[in-house]
Amino acid sequence: MEITPLGAIQPFQQVAKIQVRLCRIWKTKDQKDENEVKSIDCVMVDVQGTGIHATMEPKIKSFFMPKLIPGTIYEIQEIVAVRNRKFNIVVSHEAMLEFRRKTKVKAIQYDGPAMPLHFFNFIKYENIAASKDGQLKDVIGYLEGIQQVQRQSCNRNQIEDKMEFILLDDRKNKARVTLWASYARTFDQQTLEAQSHPIIVVFTSVKPTNFRGGIQHLQKKSLEELLLLNPNDNQNNHFICEATIVDIDTKPRWCYKACHTCYKKLDESTGAPVCPQHGIINGLPLPWYKIHCIVQDDVEQTTFILMGRTAEKALNITCYNLFYEQENSNPHVLPTVVSNLIGCQKLFQVRFGKPKLSSSRCDLIVTYIHDDFSQSPIALTLSSQSSLSQTLENTSKSFQTPSTPGTPYIEKKSSTKRKLAFQSGGEENPKTR
Ligand SMILES: [Zn+2]
């Protein structure tokens, strides 16, 4: 039986045999009911580099789902080609494929010419606004900033949770990606924040929209205004604040010994260091930055806590390096690279730490240090009904198949660069925003 190239598939035919790599797979949910799955969708690519969108009804998913693992190469027989959608097109192709009950799926040992690992339709940031061709787009960029979940009206009379990501391309153009509703609520931000910088993210099947507002609604506050806010009402908000680091408090340690997995402070009271979550630590504890920066603007002074990866990014050196390799092992004596922060004027993005039982004050934690906020971003937005993948791209087995939508899939690319990719699916009837 001949293998049909994906590029040769026409709508309204039964395709006898294809050989493809499954790039990504996700559940498309019902617009009105987040819990109801309308279809299972995937993107496949063949050896010629042609991509195609394939779909199956939920009622036959149990038949195929256990077999379908992203990254795997399959031989698929008796799959049906139908006409591709007119709107929210996932892959530009005249046809899309439908799994039927009689469809046969078999993972194969493939030894032919290299088959692409991914299939994306990346959009250039400068083309985002102009893109009105009914196609969903994929976008890649450096993660510049995140705005945590907040409530906002997404449609007439409807308030929804949303979460925004600011991406930069290689020419420093900005794009903003918005997750709505359950995708915003279930996104695992902690895993993301714990990654080494720079973080490269891929959003797939997002819908370009016109931009409303601007980056300014990451509200800019003076220190005085910031200190007047009730932390309990603002646990999910980030603020932009321009200030100068005038000193660093050395009474608290500039770093602490942390768990390699969760970065929580280790308890050494009983001898061997123990993580409250992961138990006894094998090997050296991980030194982790926690720098108490005294910051000042024209009117006020307060303390910002610069921690973990954010501090590594600001200092351009890992805490591990500074502590062990450059032998700055006294946590009360500032290494030069840390004390050099004194005098720096920065645009800080900060959030409130968790409320403390012992005090009415909350820590102010730096989440990003921005260089330039003057340029208005271009927008790329997901509608509230888009679905995120349950089974994400999978080229590395170690982080395979997160179980909740929006869980980032992380692929370790090198010691300094990691890639994060997650998936949103095509929705049938987008709301107009
Ligand atoms: Zn731990």
Automatic annotation (TrEMBL):
It comes from Turnera subulata. InterPro entries: NA-bd_OB-fold (IPR012340), REPA_OB_2 (IPR031657), RFA1B/D_OB_1st (IPR003871). SUPFAM superfamilies: Nucleic acid-binding proteins. Keywords: DNA-binding. CDD domains: RPA1_DBD_A_like. Residues 393-406 have a biased composition (Polar residues). PANTHER family: OS03G0429900 PROTEIN. This is Replication protein A OB domain-containing protein. Pfam families: DUF223, REPA_OB_2. It comes from the Eukaryota. Residues 393-433 are annotated as: Disordered. GO terms for molecular function: DNA binding. Residues 5-106 form the Replication protein A 70 kDa DNA-binding subunit B/D first OB fold domain. Residues 128-213 form the Replication protein A OB domain.
